[in-house]
Amino acid sequence: MKSRNHFSEELQAFAAEYLRFDFEKGEIYWKKRRGGKAKAGSRTGYVETDERSGKKYRRMGLGGKEYREHRLLFCFHHRNSFEGFDIDHIDQNSLNNKIENLRAVTKSDNSRNAKQRKDNASGVTGVSWHKVREKWCAYIFLNGKHIHLGRFTKKRDAIFRRKLAEIHYGYHPNHGRSKNQN
Asked: What's the whole-number mean pLDDT along residues 47-75?
């Protein structure tokens, strides 16, 4: 994926002078004291909870702008901005910023590696019980569109059809897994 570097020379110079990137651990540290609470050797930023998704992300302020740690790590590691792309946490742990756990993806691809929703009643993403027809329904979302995969008497048949669709449409193997499955 090609993208021009959007980090200003000033930001790059600041990072070179003040920041130490540990790509294996997925963490950023201060190289030297910068004022306030920032001490040399201490971890940068703070953990915030995204209001929309409920996920926790590590954030930091640089040059009057706020950045998520995983984006900075990924972009400085690859020396590219990847503007317009999401940076996906492969294992779905939004605080695991190890470089091998991050990948640049489109918004659509990122949604194909989402955890199971908390309100899921069937235990399987894309499978639900249809009360009126008394059948299991399988469905999948693709590019914002709901695709009906069929109705089934047996839940296992609906699950099987959904899993086939995930493979066919290129969903990540982690998609729809609950916390206990990771």
From this structure: 88
